Amino acid sequence: MEIYLDANATTPVLPQARSAALAVMSETFGNPSSIHGSGLRARALLDQVRAAARRVLGAPSGQLMFTSGATEGIQTAVLSALHALRQRRVSGESIPGQLLYGATEHKAVPEALRHWNALLGLNLEIRAIPVGIDGRHDRGWLRAHAGDAGLVCTMAANNETGVISDLDGIADALAQSPALWLVDGVQALGKLPLRLAERRIDYAPFSGHKLYAPKGIGLLYVREGAPVTPLLTGGGQEGASRAGTENMAGIAALGAVLAALEAGDVFASGDVLRAQRERLADALGEAFPGVVFNAPFDCSLPTTLNFSVPGLSARLLLDLFDAAGLRVSGGSACSAAKAQPSYVLQAMGLPAWQTASAVRLSFGAADTPALIDEACARLRDCGEMLRATCQGAEASGAAGPLDPLTRFVVDGACCYVVADAQSRRCVVIDPLPELTERLAQWISCRQGVLAAVLDTHSHGDHVSSAQSLIDALAPAQVDLFPVRDGLGWPAEAAIVALGAHRLTRLHIPGHTQDSTAYLLHDAQGLRLAFVGDMVMPGALGRSDFEQSAPHSFAASLKTLEAAVGPHTLLLPAHDYDNFFATTLSVECAAHPLLAGALTGVVDAQAFAMEKAALERNLAPTEYQTLACGARTACALAMENVELPAEQVREQLRTGQALQLIDVREAFEARMGTAGSLDAEPVPLSTLVGALPRWGALAADVPLVFVCRSGNRSAQAARALRRLGHAQAWSLAGGLALWPVDAQAVPGGEALAI
Question: Residues with catalytic annotation?
Answer without folding.
Answer: 334
